[in-house]
């Protein structure tokens, strides 16, 4: 039973965390038809491309600063109730611009949500700005420049998500340089839809302290040794990997092999309602199906806090709560 364990999450996309009931309420408010991406109260998609389509459609239901404050509060209230003391939310200023909210109002709404939930539950949260790979290097650089210029104490990291099979990692190195030079923490999606070579490219060209997913590093023992040696932390999302068919089922998932190879691993929900999961369920799966003990789960939570994009005083405070 993992319910009582303290938890931390490094990898959750805010627009991927919209509960279907909230999406329906927003759709009703704005007079949007939901049949193309929802059925019987659940999101509908069949592969990564259609997942991204459904994700974009749901993002389009949030159109104001208040909408984003509501979404942030809804997710963080649930996460705190499940025992989480820390959360990093991946945010996409690109989505905000696409729906006409504007990145500043978007970030202001999310910031309000973070502060409201922290005041009532104590959960700490930071924003990690995400550039979308399928939008190309120029848009990703725009996102990096936006994050670098913001100087917002709640916005502490930079990431790239989206269609991993598009473009070469090298094309995005400049965006990450901009973010790193501004003092932001660096993580990148790799080794999810593409194989071990994408993880190698990320390490060589981006020099992240963390990798989103990274699970297909398991295809290359030399790479596993390198990840362990360099202490790079993997943001592992088993429910997402199984839902997207990266691995056929949980017993086949490599979380145990990664951990046994000495790689630092953490548990995350990615886009929870799209993958019928939650952070709590990820801990339960790791416990019941993968056989991790409570001590091993606590180690993953500690790893997440140690790798969090926070100042050292906040990190010490969070570690003291474990
Ligand atoms: N699992 C995932 N991989 C890449 N980009 C994403 N954006 C939202 N979820 C994602
Ligand atoms: Zn992700």
Automatic annotation (TrEMBL):
The reaction(s) this protein catalyses: adenine + H2O + H(+) = hypoxanthine + NH4(+)
Transmembrane segments: none
Binding sites annotated in the UniProt record for Zn(2+): 11, 13, 189, 270
EC top class, as a word: hydrolase
SUPFAM superfamilies: Metallo-dependent hydrolases
GO molecular function, one term: zinc ion binding
Assigned EC number: 3.5.4.2
Residues annotated as site: Important for catalytic activity: 213
Cofactor(s) listed in the protein's UniProt record: Zn(2+)
Active site: 192 (proton donor)
Binding of substrate, residues: 271
Adenosine deaminase domain: residues covered: 7-321
Keywords: Hydrolase, Metal-binding, Nucleotide metabolism, Zinc
Cofactor note: Binds 1 zinc ion per subunit.
Role according to the record: Catalyzes the hydrolytic deamination of adenine to hypoxanthine. Plays an important role in the purine salvage pathway and in nitrogen catabolism.
Family recorded in the similarity comment: Belongs to the metallo-dependent hydrolases superfamily. Adenosine and AMP deaminases family. Adenine deaminase type 2 subfamily.
Identification of the protein by name: Adenine deaminase
Organism: Rhizobium subbaraonis
């Amino acid at each position: 039973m993992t319910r009582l364990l303290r938890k931390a999450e490094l990898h959750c996309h805010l627009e991927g965390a919209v509960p279907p009931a909230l999406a329906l309420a927003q759709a009703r408010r704005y007079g949007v038809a939901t049949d193309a991406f929802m059925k019987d109260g659940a999101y509908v998609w069949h592969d990564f491309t259609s997942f991204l389509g459904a994700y974009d459609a749901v993002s389009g239901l949030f159109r104001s600063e208040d909408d984003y404050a509501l979404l942030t509060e809804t997710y963080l209230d649930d996460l705190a109730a499940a025992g989480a003391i820390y959360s990093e939310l991946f945010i996409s200023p690109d989505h905000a611009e696409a729906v006409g909210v504007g990145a500043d109002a978007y970030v202001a709404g999310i910031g309000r949500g973070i502060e409201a939930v922290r005041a009532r539950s104590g959960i700490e949260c930071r924003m990690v700005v995400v550039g979308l790979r399928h939008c190309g290097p120029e848009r990703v650089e725009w996102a990096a420049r936006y994050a670098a210029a913001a100087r917002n104490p709640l916005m502490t990291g930079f990431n790239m998500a989206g269609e991993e099979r598009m473009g070469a990692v090298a094309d995005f190195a400049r965006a990450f340089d901009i973010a790193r030079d501004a003092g932001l923490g660096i993580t990148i999606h790799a080794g999810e839809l593409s194989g071990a070579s994408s993880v190698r490219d990320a390490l060589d060209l981006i020099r992240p302290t963390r990798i989103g997913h990274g699970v297909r590093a398991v295809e290359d023992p030399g790479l596993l040794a390198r990840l362990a040696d360099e202490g790079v932390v993997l943001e592992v999302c088993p429910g997402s990997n199984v839902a997207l068919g990266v691995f056929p089922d949980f017993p086949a998932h490599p979380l145990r092999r990664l951990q046994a190879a000495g790689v630092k691993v953490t548990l995350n929900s990615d886009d929870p309602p799209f993958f019928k999961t939650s952070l709590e369920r990820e801990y339960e799966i790791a416990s019941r199906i993968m056989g991790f003990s409570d001590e091993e789960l606590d180690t993953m939570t500690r790893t997440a806090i140690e790798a969090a994009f926070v100042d050292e005083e906040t990190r010490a405070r969070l570690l003291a709560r474990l």
